[in-house]
Specification:
Elements: H1 15-22, E1 28-30, E2 33-35, E3 42-46, E4 53-58, H2 62-75, H3 79-82, H4 86-102, H5 104-115, H6 119-141, E5 148-149, E6 157-165, E7 168-172, H7 178-191, E8 195-199, H8 206-218, E9 225-227, H9 232-241, E10 247-251, H10 254-264, E11 270-274, E12 280-283, H11 289-301, E13 313-317, H12 321-334, H13 353-368, E14 372-375, E15 390-393, H14 400-403, E16 410-416, H15 421-428, E17 433-434, E18 436-440, H16 444-453, E19 458-461, E20 475-476, E21 479-480, H17 485-490, E22 493-501
Parallel strand pairs: 7-8, 7-10, 8-9, 10-11, 12-13, 12-18, 13-16, 15-16, 18-19
Antiparallel strand pairs: 1-2, 3-4, 5-6, 6-22, 11-21, 14-15, 17-20
Helix pairs in contact: 1-5, 2-9, 4-6, 4-8, 5-6, 6-7, 11-12, 15-16
The chain binds adenosine-5'-diphosphate (ADP).
């Protein structure tokens, strides 16, 4: 099987504009100016559907990090930013949302070129999520209040707390949803009044570069937003150790999260980490399987499984096991795999040849260990990093396919006969990760009890997706802290207590 070699290109609005943008010269954005990397280095970004080079972008090194930190520190001393009224910060974010909305097709096409995802997914998920996140957080700028506190010590006191911006924040994002991830980092940070240095993933720098142009046009004070394109081990690592950075927020692998945690300890940076997952999807005996089957399939196959919260472990009550596995497999077999720019593509390539080979390695290893390859698993020839949606059965809890984050369209399906909620939860909780969990049931009591018992940052019952108002983050090795919602923006503030003797 090969992915369609000569795809029919969808009539993609603004594809030419996206290609023209990609072809431009790409510099770093530091202190309100576009500059080359100080060492003059660049690196290439590629189209994952063809392997073709899309663009050369500036490769930031340590000295560029110094320069960006200095610019951000300058902004945190600039009255134009630190004394800006909350309503004015809110307006800047609203204007950025408006600007993004008016270029939505170009951003979607650019995201597909660089990341490979189906353009309709970029258009219908990534862009609305980014725009919604900007609008949601713009609302918080005027609502970050402390509280008055009653003290019990001798004397008469007026005591209260202030929520103040944490300062200079380094924001390191991955390649699976490049724009949506970048915006979910910068929107709360800017709403809270911080200055940011954004480092997109080396695989997908283009939408962040385009976003920086919008930020430039909108007129944030210089140094409030800085963009460093570059590699994790160099620019990323330098940001995480830099003494001038007060907070690091990171989304990516648990392995890199661990490195960042260590690196950030030097000056006790605040750290928010959104790391890996091995999300369990539980289908209870009373569930509506007509909804649970497509729900379970999309939970693992959307974005070719490259979602930290992908539902990669499926636990189905034995009453429905065969029907669900057949149903999910049928959906898998029917998904049209191809370049994200082709009109009929439902699943695009994975990000890189390395990632494709890694996913196939997991599948092979699982089968060698005794798993049954129910659907998929085959190599897809031709150009591009395509992996078929894959369903494994007869796995055991100690297999790597069950324990490790594969970050690809690979599902392990298991049955259970139990109705004991403690045992169901224990099986689902048997993981180093604890990012998300999904339950399909119409039994209200079981739903709420499982929601309490599951060790996961987000529990979804009968469907649902990301929302900028819903706190997101993980238990256990899935991370530290929460993004989104009130917790998300408060994580960009320090609480200051003020006590005045009256
Ligand atoms: P993935 O495994 O999903 O590719 P990574 O966790 O490797 O994701 O990378 C996510 C982001 O982290 C990227 O922007 C990458 O450049 C950055 N990164 C990788 N290694 C480091 C590091 N040692 N320090 C800081 N950032 C890093």
């Amino acid at each position: 099987m090969t992915a369609s070699a000569t795809p029919k290109l969808a009539e993609i609005p603004s594809l030419d504009a996206a290609r023209a943008f990609a072809a431009q010269r790409h510099q770093l954005y530091v202190g309100g100016s576009w500059v080359d990397a100080l060492e003059g280095e660049t690196f290439a970004t590629h189209d994952p559907a063809t392997g073709d080079k899309l663009a050369d972008v500036a490769k930031a090194g340590e000295r560029d990090v110094d320069r960006a930190v200095e610019a951000a520190r300058g902004a945190m001393n600039d009255p134009a930013w630190i004394d800006m009224k909350p309503a004015a910060r809110a307006r800047l974010l609203e204007r950025l949302a408006d600007a993004l909305e008016s270029s939505v097709d170009e951003f979607a096409a650019l995201e597909t070129l660089d990341n490979g995802k189906p353009v309709r997914d970029a258009r219908n998920f990534d862009l609305p999520h980014a725009i919604g996140t900007l609008r949601y957080n713009s609302g918080w700028a005027t609502k970050l209040n402390g509280e008055t506190i009653s003290l019990s010590g001798p004397g008469t006191w007026h005591a209260y707390t202030l929520k103040q911006p944490v300062g200079v924040v380094a924001q390191i994002v991955p390649w699976n949803a490049p724009l949506a991830m970048a915006v979910s980092k910068i929107a709360p940070a800017l709403a809270a009044g911080c200055a940011v240095i954004l480092k997109p993933a080396e695989e997908t720098p283009l939408t962040a570069l385009r976003l920086a142009r919008l930020i430039e046009e909108i007129g944030f004070p210089p140094g409030v937003f800085n963009l460093l394109t570059g590699f994790g081990e160099t620019a990323g690592a330098a940001l995480t150790t830099h003494p001038g950075v007060e907070k690091v927020t990171f989304t990516g692998s648990t392995e890199v999260g661990r490195l960042i945690l260590r690196a950030a300890g030097g000056n006790f940076k605040r750290v928010t980490l959104e790391l890996g997952g091995k999300t369990p999807v539980i289908i209870m005996p009373d569930a509506d399987v007509t909804k649970a089957i497509p729900g379970a399939a999309m939970s693992i196959f959307a974005n070719a499984g490259q979602i930290c919260n992908a539902g990669s472990r499926l636990f189905v009550h034995e009453r429905h096991f065969d029907e669900v596995v057949e149903g999910v497999s049928k959906i898998a077999q029917g998904l049209k795999i191809g370049p994200g720019l082709a009109s009929d593509t439902q699943m695009g390539p994975v990000i890189s040849p390395t990632q494709r080979d890694r996913i196939h390695g997991y599948i092979r290893h699982g089968v060698e260990e005794g798993a049954n390859l129910h659907t998929g698993g085959h190599e897809i020839g031709g150009a591009g990093n395509f992996v078929p949606p894959t369903v494994l059965t007869r796995t055991t809890a100690d297999m790597a396919v069950r324990r490790e984050e594969i970050f690809g369209p690979v599902l392990c399906a298991m049955s259970f006969s139990d109705e004991d909620l403690d045992r169901i939860a224990a099986e689902a909780n048997d993981s180093d990760y604890g990012l998300g969990a999904v339950v399909w049931t119409n039994n209200l009591s079981a739903a709420h009890q499982l929601a309490r018992k599951l060790k996961a940052g987000t529990v979804r019952v009968n469907g649902g997706g990301l929302d900028p108002a819903l706190p997101f983050g993980g238990f256990k090795q899935s991370g530290w802290g929460r993004e989104n919602g009130r917790e998300g923006i408060e994580a960009y503030t320090e609480t200051k207590a003020v006590a005045m003797a009256l």
